[in-house]
Hints:
Blueprint: H1 2-11, H2 15-26, H3 31-37, H4 44-83, H5 102-116, E1 120-121, E2 127-128, H6 130-133, E3 159-160, H7 166-174, E4 179-188, E5 200-210, H8 215-230, E6 236-241, E7 246-257, E8 264-275, H9 277-283, E9 289-296, H10 297-305, H11 318-321
Parallel strand pairs: 1-4
Antiparallel strand pairs: 2-3, 4-5, 5-9, 6-7, 7-8, 8-9
Helix pairs in contact: 1-2, 1-4, 2-4, 5-10
Amino acid sequence: xxxxALTRIAAAQDHRALQDVRVAYLGKKGHLTERLKALGxxxxxxxxxxxxxxxxxxxxxxxxxDERVRALDEAVVRAQLEGERVDVTLPGVRTSxxxxxxxxxxxxxxxxxxxxxxxxxxxxxxxxxxxxxxxxLNFPPEHPARDTQDTFWTTDGRLLRTHTSPVQVRYMRxxxxxxxxxxxxxxxxxxxxxxxxxxxxxxLEALVVGERVTMADLRGAITAMATALLGSGTRTRxxxxxxxxxxxxxxxxxxxxxxxTGREEWLELGGCGMVHPNVFRAVGYEGVTGFAFGFxxxxxxxxxYGVADIRDLYRGDVRVLEQFRGMA
Length: 328
Ligand code: YSA
């Protein structure tokens, strides 16, 4: 019986088949169980002898079953490992990683430049009031200069700021000079949108106030920024203009080579000037001077990286945006 049972145990290919063999030998009506039951009919001597033999047989069978269970378990694990094997030599699946938008890259670069020049980066609210956006910056009510910066008003009389200059007022009210700060941020204007004008764009503002800050310091700061952005030897120029919150006021331009046309020309970046005494009066400062300047980040990005239409920066077209991956 042992040999036959061992052959059947070895032939069982899974746990269910093995269980059938176990029942056939060790179950209630199994071959071995029947033989054990038959022991009762034997004489005591025969029973002792036969009983010992059957117990040995039973132990042998149980050992063989246990061993086969282990072997089947191992086979299951081996088959699973085999099926899930990873072929590390297969080519990988390329996933496309995101990247910073060109405007974010340009802003980071500008902030790095200004931090290296000792400026602190500060921010202010996009939803402003008339006082900070206009009146405290020397745009009195009804002043025609307000027409140059039309904006969107909320029903409670507030407005979306038209420039980053109101942060000058907010910062000066809370701090005492001397200081140097830059203010990056989103601004809004009620504009007819075209290739160079958006209704929402970004500016970077700089404000430096101290005891003897002069126009020469302003010129030096602008040249340092232009040099860091466009290379050493970059020439800068100030040309007179009017902003109510500076006196004198100027536009600043850099001499550069246009990336598309290859022509050398003056590139106008933004406005600047010496902080107007009325602005210092509005924030309660006395005995100090200061300069400020501000410019559009989109315009700077466009001319630096050859973007012909400002709207391309906002369309979200990945084919356009991908061209500027890791540019600035
Ligand atoms: C002037 C003097 C200071 O002491 C400090 C800051 C300034 C700048 C002033 N606050 C201002 O906003 N001037 S500005 O109306 O001429 O705009 C500055 C720059 O923003 C422009 O040179 C241009 O680069 C950009 N800009 C203006 N309107 C825009 C625009 N960019 C995109 N879309 C528009 N609609």
